[in-house]
Amino acid sequence: MSAFYYLLSVVARMNASMWRFRINFLPINVVLVGALAFWGFAELNSAIEGTHNAATPLAVSIQQIHDEANPPQNYVAVTGLDVPKALYEFGDKSSDGEITRVSMSWSPLVDTTSQRILLVQHAGKTPGGRTQEATITGMLREMNSSVRNGLAAHHDTIQGLPVETRYVLVAGDHPADSISSALTAAIVLSIVALFIIVTINRNTIFRRADFGSPVSKVKSADPLKVGATGTFGLEQEGKVIEKRFVGMNAILAHLENGNPALFANIDASSRFMGVTTSKRAGVWTLAVDAGSVQASQIGYLYWGAARRPALRFSYTSGGTKRRAVITTDDKQMLDTAVALLTTIPAPKGAPTT
User: Fold this and answer.
1) Which residues, including other chains, have CB under 8 Å from residue 174's CB and lie 6 or more apart?
2) Vertex 333 angle, CA 304 and 255, to 5°
């Protein structure tokens, strides 16, 4: 189980780092997760398709394809009169609308018995040659919407012959290996799931643990160096900017009013192409209302490839309820940090008895 938390923590650190960089104003991690999800579901679809198709193509006629509501499989071999002339071509176009590079093309395959046409999809230009009877092997796929619209404009016929409009035959295509596709889908979608988990947890990977002793009995402590995860505030030009940070080096001490607080020197300035767009550098503060600490949980915080003893707790700050985590180098220091966090000393200048 610890290995899983370490894995989550590595992903969390990557996720937090990538969030700072953007492509067309989209964070890199969002772009990456979107691309991985698309790849994973594509592989999953290929795996499902592989289980529904035999390793050898099924010989069918164009009329059978038309008559079958659900073909027994999509990997087929179709015999007909092959007319190697492109009826439709898609690709890159010049400014005057001329196609400069053909990425896909469609040519007719004619069933001489039923006089029905099946469009054959080619990668790139349609191979030239003479019209002849041929058997073409490939995968039956849904017809491209633009091609479908083009046929509809001609009443789904070509030179008076009806065209099969549910499918096209993608020449040379074949079903993927279901096992390898399923394995790839599982790995890729697992990575996506890890990113989703750490995002939901706001990159904070905390695991409860029993250290075998109650919270420290220490009654007071000097300011202490800790790691801090939570929502900090930076006062600038009369207003407070708030931002959440994970695993920041901080000082746990008390404000002048006696409330515990975490202080971290952080540069959270925003930059675009090397130019600082907003300067947010200085001492950020996480203030805790005295006596508001509750729902404390002792455990470990995983960050990157390391883990540290940690305390996760709920608190209020200015009446707003929040959650934070503090970490230390060892369990004894954590006890001291807990004592400092929960002890309420008298405000500076207050009378003593």
Assistant:
1) 57, 75, 137, 138, 139
2) 95
Evaluate whether 48 touches 73 at the Cβ level (below 8 Å). no
Query: Do residues 18 and 29 touch, judged by C-beta distance below 8 A?
Result: yes
Segment 196-235, tens digit of pLDDT: 999 998 888 888 877 664 444 444 456 789 999 999 999 8
Rounded distance between C-alpha atoms, residue 232 and residue 244, angstroms: 6
3-class SS of residue 289: coil
The 8-class DSSP code of residue 258 comes to: S
Taking only the tens place, the pLDDT of each residue in 280-336 is 889 999 999 888 888 888 899 998 888 899 999 999 988 889 999 999 988 888 888
Q: What is the pTM of this model?
A: 0.68
| CA dist list (Å): 244 to 126, 284, 323 | 57, 10, 11
Distances (CA, A) of 103 to 39, 83, 89, 315: 21, 19, 8, 60
Closest listed residue to residue 83, CA positions, set 128, 115, 114: 128
Residue of 273, 282, 202, 276 whose CA lies nearest to 236? 282
Question: Chain-centre distance of CA 53, in angstroms?
Answer: 30
C-beta separation of 119 from 164 below 8 A? yes
Q: Nearest Cα to 335, choosing from 252, 244, 264? A: 252
Output the pLDDT for position 344.
Answer: 64
Residue type for position 226: V
Tokens at residue 316, please? 């209020």
Dihedral-angle region of residue 25 (phi above 0 means left; psi in -120 to 50 means alpha; beta otherwise)? left
In whole angstroms, give the CA distance from residue 100 to residue 110: 29
Q: How far apart are CA 290 and CA 236, in angstroms?
A: 25
Could you read off the pLDDT of 13-45 as tens digits, one per residue? 899 888 877 787 788 889 999 999 999 999 999
